[in-house]
Design a protein that fits this description.
The complex is a heterodimer of chains A (about 110) and B (about 110). Chain A has about 110 residues and is mainly beta. Helix content of chain A is about 0%, strand content about 55%. Chain A has one domain: Immunoglobulin-like. Chain A has no helices and eleven strands. In chain A, the strands form two sheets. In chain A, strands 2, 4, 5, 9, 10 and 11 form a six-stranded mixed β-sheet that branches. A five-stranded antiparallel β-sheet of chain A has the order 1-3-8-7-6, with no helix packed on it. Chain A starts with a strand and ends with a strand. Chain B has a single domain, classed as Immunoglobulin-like (Sandwich). Chain B is globular. Chain B starts with a strand and ends with a strand.
């Protein structure tokens, strides 16, 4: 079936480095994509989103890139901090459905 | 800013018992979504409501039912609980014409 997946289950970076988390999606009907950060025992926290009519969107220290040609989504975190350590999920929505379809999550660890 | 409120935060039940989870959306949000997240898993969509009407349905067992009330809060009713129902249950809310779903802190259900 349709799915959203992540290439790397874990990512370890040094404090101050830039982090890139990748996500592949397979539903060509998806028109909305979103990144969430989830800390242990907490709910997913909205980071940034992007619609399919865009290929790049920037927030505070974060950038999302969307490549519809290869169905790829990435989250870039600049100057990664220890507080960024968490599991990051991408999710997509589209085809008239209300639901978010989540990828498997990438655990980001930031080493001081 | 006000966030999604869920209650209870933790719940322990025996097999075959029933459970009711409550969700209070962000003020002025009119759409509520329920997701289930197993240990180490990504959130899976269960069901959503808009203006008290079911708007979409995912992989929700027949033993579960949900509704949205006139004040927009929602309740997820779970009957004949099974061990496999042990999970984190998240509620998310959004304003109908905005894509972003904001998640609550979750209810951790343990079925013994």
């Amino acid at each position: 079936g349709e799915s959203v997946g992540l290439h790397l289950p874990t990512l370890s970076v040094q404090e101050g480095d830039n982090s890139i988390i990748n996500c592949a999606y397979s539903n060509s009907a998806s028109d909305y994509f979103i990144w969430y950060k989830q800390e242990s025992g907490k709910g997913p926290q909205f980071i940034i989103d992007i619609r399919s009519n865009m290929d790049k969107r920037q927030g505070q220290r974060v950038t999302v890139l969307l490549n519809k040609t290869v169905k790829h989504l990435s989250l870039q975190i600049a100057a990664t901090q220890p507080g960024d350590s968490a599991v990051y999920f991408c999710a997509e929505k589209g085809g008239g459905s209300e639901k978010l379809v989540f990828g498997k999550g990438t655990k980001l660890t930031v080493n001081p | 800013a006000a966030g999604v409120i869920q209650s209870p935060r933790h719940l322990i039940k025996e097999k075959r018992e029933t459970a009711t989870l409550k969700c209070y959306p962000i003020p002025r949000h009119d759409t509520v979504y329920w997701y289930q997240q197993g240990p180490g898993q990504d959130p899976q969509f269960l069901i959503s409501f808009y203006e008290k009407m079911q708007s979409d349905k995912g992989s929700i067992p027949d033993r579960f039912s949900a509704q949205q009330f006139s004040d927009y809060h929602s309740e997820l009713n779970m009957s004949s609980l099974e061990l496999g129902d042990s999970a984190l249950y998240f509620c998310a809310s959004s304003f109908r014409y905005q894509e972003t779903q904001y998640f609550g802190p979750g209810t951790r259900l343990l079925v013994l």
